[in-house]
Amino acid sequence: MNLVLASTSPFRRELLGKVIRHFDVAAPEVDETPLSHEAPWRLVERLAQAKAKALAAQFPQHILIGSDQVAVIDGKILGKPGTKANAIAQLQSMRGKQVTFLTGLAIYDSQQQRMQSCVEPFDVFFRDLTDAEIEAYVAREQPLNCAGSFKSEALGISLFSSLRGDDPNALIGLPLIRLLAMLREWGINPLLDENSH
After folding, report:
1. Residue 196 contacts by C-beta under 8 Å, 6 or more apart in sequence?
2. Catalytic residue among 24, 68, 128, 166
3. How would you classify residue 59: left for phi > 0, otherwise alpha for psi between -120 and 50, otherwise beta?
4. Is 109 designated active site?
5. Mean model confidence pLDDT for the chain
6. pTM
7. Tens-place pLDDT, residues 18-64
8. Cα–Cα distance, 104 to 170 (Å, whole number)
9. pLDDT tens, 96-144?
């Protein structure tokens, strides 16, 4: 069965490439606007499912993988900052606090119209960062297109006091442990399939 990653994220593509050799990548056209009063975990699961299904017509005999992520602090969703000033303000609001990253993951069999999805949480505990540290970090990494204003796979790790979760890949946007478990339920196992790796 052919796999397709429904994502434009280079980070998700790189993660999937570590465990699966052959897969296609395509950009899903999905409106990511939250619904009124939609809980963060419902939002990411709905969008992951929508991304996976969005490519079904284009890939009618494939397993489609969709993923979506938000950062939540004090019950509020943190978006992508977009500007340097917003990134600094976001990081200032997070110092000394816990931020929960929720990653929605969905796999969709376009031939059998079968869907499987879940939400993987991952907690990040921020150090009590100084303004100088925050400003230096934003200047060096330019995390303007990252939810929560940091890249955990790079210098962002220096912002944290600790991490808590089942799969550190979830923080980057694709929980591989859960994904591989879901694929095994559908008979896809990169350890046993010579074509996949």
Report:
1. 20, 21, 22, 188, 189, 190
2. 68
3. beta
4. no
5. 92
6. 0.88
7. 999 899 999 999 998 889 999 999 999 999 999 999 999 999 999 99
8. 9
9. 999 999 999 999 999 999 999 999 999 999 999 999 999 999 999 999 9
Task: Find, among 47, 69, 61, the residue nearest to 114 by Cα.
Answer: 61
- Domain 2-185 listed as CATH 3.30.420.40: no
CA 194 – CA 179 distance, rounded (Å): 18
Domains of the chain: which residue ranges? 2-185
Closest CA to 106 of 177, 45, 34: 45
> Which tokens is 150 given?
């940091």
pLDDT at 197 over 70: no
For residues 66 and 45, what is the distance between their CA atoms, to the nearest angstrom?
Answer: 9
Main-chain phi, psi angles of 21, to 5 degrees: -80, -45
Tell me the two tokens of residue 59.
Answer: 């890939």
Side chain identity, residue 44: V
